[in-house]
Structures are given as structure tokens and as C-alpha cells.
Write the C-alpha cells for this entry.
Amino acid sequence: MIRTGAQYLDGIRDGREVWIDGERVKDVASHKAFAPIVAVKARMYDMQHEAAHQDALTYTESGERHSVYNQPPRTQEDWHRKWRSVDALLHEIGGVVTRVGDETVGEMWSLQDGRDVLAEIDPRFAANIDNHIARVVERDPFHVSANTDPKGDRSKHITQRDPDMMVHVVKETSAGIIIRGAKYETAAAYADQAFLKPTVGAWSDEKESDYALGCIVKMGAEGVKHICRDGFAGRGNPADYPLANRFDEVDTLVVFDNVLIPWEDVFFYRHTRAAQHIRATLHRYSAFPYVLRLLYNADMMIGAALFNAKQTGLEKLQAVQEKLADLACYREGIRAHLVASIALAEKSPAGLLMPNQSLLYAGRVLACSQLPAMMHAARELIGGQICVTPNAAAFQAEGSSEWLKKFYSLNDNWQSEDRRKLLAFSRDLLNSDYAGHRLAFVQFAQAPHFNHLAAVYRNFDFSGPLDFVRRAADMSDKVMG
Ligand SMILES: Cc1cc2nc3c(=O)[nH]c(=O)nc-3n(C[C@H](O)[C@H](O)[C@H](O)COP(=O)(O)OP(=O)(O)OC[C@H]3O[C@@H](n4cnc5c(N)ncnc54)[C@H](O)[C@@H]3O)c2cc1C
């Protein structure tokens, strides 16, 4: 089934407890901090029903129509179709959103790859992951990711910290398990459910096994409390902050105050090896949509920088062209990793098609680690006017507007209003509070940099370089041992 926007809105109007700016939110869908991003998600659902977008966003199986985003990938075409559906969405909404479901649902496919590990403890749990993957396809919920606990002082063993610093099981009942703790989750306040699993860590200490827990949590369940950071939407005039006002994906500290997780929603529990498995493989699918978003981010930087160079006539300078070429290399580097990861895709243990792991994770490091430098390159190309340009009201007000029209009109093609719009867009992309937040999002939201590098280390085949050097240096076979 594919849901409509109205069905999605009905689903999040479930009486959930959401707090922002010290106030309890009555209706997430209409609150100024959430309304724009909720509207994007609702639009995404509606697009699935429209003739113009249905082919890009949906597929049919056994006579039923489903979302391409939720489809477990089995062929290279499946991955290309996912790419096309993201392309259709981002062009439709005119910006970049990351956490809208497709980028988190793949975390469950990773767990399914480890179903043998799950079955070691209790075969029921292995069946639960299969059921949930099927349920996402059938019911089309908005699914987010819950990894990161507040954690507390890590110089102390968890037994010496407040146990709630990491999500754990406090009680087992016939209905399910009761959990306590908290997680940081983008988009949780307006999502349907989250896949909760242990945070980044070694997960080798048996004593921590109460914390080795993986399950689905309904975002409106009793005891779930969403305490959100303040929003960017509604803070300033949309004419001055066009991205912040449309695409802010509000992050939440989700508190679990004795939340019942029914047995059918439990994937693993007191299972350190399952925690190890999921931490080692979590992003084997979901890194693809995450990195793909950065391709569009790169396009926004290139477009903004090139339009600016065209306006000012600076594009004809070779030195300016070289800086634009640096941005294009970054963009093409991301695209190359994505294309190659599909071309050399690998079969997963559960029979799905994983993007080539070494190439995908290397692409994630390239895309995320180079972003600060590329943002600075774009900022430098566009120049200081993004910081010093007056706001839209000044372009309208009698007394200032005549001067601004004069100084911001460059030629017949570029009149002051278009130049103002380009500078406002560029500021929100590169310089504003929202721009800084998005940079932090890219650096952390899926995992921190050291974890990205650990994924490359685990997946790159080091035997090739070792063997090459062994032969080149004429060393014995034994050194490979
Ligand atoms: C905008 C944003 C959105 C987010 N969205 C989500 C989400 O949707 N779901 C979710 O679960 N989480 C989310 N997160 C949380 C994110 O996953 C964490 O911020 C991240 O895992 C790092 O955890 P931490 O912030 O507690 O930092 P810490 O664990 O305190 O680490 C801080 C820094 O210390 C260093 N460090 C720590 N441990 C090591 C180590 N073992 N080796 C090397 N260096 C180390 C690194 O420099 C690291 O960046 C989001 C974060 C941000 C900023």
C-alpha cells in the first residue's frame, strides 16, 4: 500500500508528547517549527499517487503498489530507481531533505543480513525483523533512526553511571519489554516509528548486555517524550532564509520513560553479538541515500557559485573557472562513488544487493569530510556580499529600496530582486545558522567521522596493496601470513 499525505498527518496526530521552546506542542503538523517539513513529507506521500510521479516513486508487486524507498534492493535497477525517485522528490520540493524515510529504512535490511545471529538467542526475534521489513513495505510508515544515547561520563563504566544514560531494559513482561533511557533522533517528532539499536561502541563487554537492545519504537507510544531543539522555520522572513524556512529537519531528544515494546517489535535483547553485528553493518545500505543527498548539496553550491560568477562577469577569469572546477570535482567524486557502488554491487548474506561496500564507504568519507572545504570554496567564490546584503524588507522600503535597486542591478538580465534572491539563498546554504547546522548534520547524523573511517577500514580489501608490495619488494609469501 502507499499512504496519502492526509493519512500520514492523521497518523502523527496520535496525542504524542512533543516539547519545543519549553512548550508542549498541541499539533505537530501545524506548529510553525514543524509545519514546513511535515508538509514536505506529506507532499512526498501525495506524489506517490500522482500520474506525473507515480512511476518514479512507486513499484508494483503482486498487484499491490508500494514505495520505491521501502523496497529491499535486489537488482542494480532497484538502486537506480531509488536514485531516480530521490531525484524526482528533490526537484519537486526544490531543496534537499535527508531524513524522510528512505535513508533510515535500510538499517533494518542490515539487521536481516544478520538474522542467523539473531536466531541464536531466540528464533522469534529473527522472524520479527522479516515481519517488520515486510510491514514497512505494506504499510508505508515514516521510519527514523535511533542510535545515539546521551551516554554520560564514559571514563566510568556504565554500572557506575546513571543507567538511563544508555537505553536499557528494566523489566520483562508477558506483553513485552519495558525500556528506559533516551536517544537523539532527527525527525522523530513527526515520524511514525524508529529502529532503536545500541550506540557506536565496541559491544564486547558482556556486562553491558542489558543495553544490547534492538527494537521498533512507535513514536506516539505511551512514555515516549520528544524534547526538540528549537526550529529554524519561522525564525526569520522566508525571503531572507529560504532554505531554513522550508527544510529544517528538527532533531529531538527522545526520552523513553518506561516504554512497553511488544514482543513482536523486539529484534534482539541481552545479545551483545547482535549489537556487534548491527554496529558493524548498520549503514551498508543506508549510506547510499545519505551520500546521494550530498550530490544535490554539491549541485546547490555549484549553481549558487556559478550564477554569482555569471552575474558579476567573473566567470570568464581562468582563476575563477578553476575554483568552479574544484567544486565540480567534488561533485563528480561523489557521483563516481555512487555509480561505481551500484556497478560493482555485492550480494548480501540475506540475498539483497548491497552497494559495493568499500566504494560506498570511501564515497561517504569523501562527501562528508570534504564538505567544510567545499562550502568554504563556494563561499569564497560568491564573495563577501552574502554577509553584508540587507534583508528583503530593505529592498521594499521607501528610502532604502531605490539605493538597493541601483547597487544590486548588474545588467538587463540581472536585476536587483534576482540578485537579492541569489544572495539570500547562498547565505542560507553557506553562512546562516541553518547552514552551520546542516554541516553538523552531515558530519554526525549517520555517524561521526571516526566511525565512517572505521567502516572503510573494515570493508577495504587490504590484501591487494599488501600483495603488490610483497611482490615489488620481493618478500617471501610468509609475510602475508
Ligand atoms: C544534526 C544532528 C542530527 C543527528 N541525528 C541523529 C539521528 O537521527 N539518530 C541518531 O541516532 N543520532 C543522531 N545524531 C547523533 C549523532 O549520531 C551523534 O552526534 C554521533 O554519533 C556522535 O555522538 P556524540 O554527539 O554523543 O559525540 P561523542 O560520542 O561524545 O563524540 C564526540 C567526539 O569525540 C571523538 N570520539 C568519541 N569517541 C571516539 C572514538 N571511539 N574514537 C575516536 N574519536 C572519538 C570524536 O571526535 C567525536 O566526534 C545526530 C547528530 C546531529 C549533530
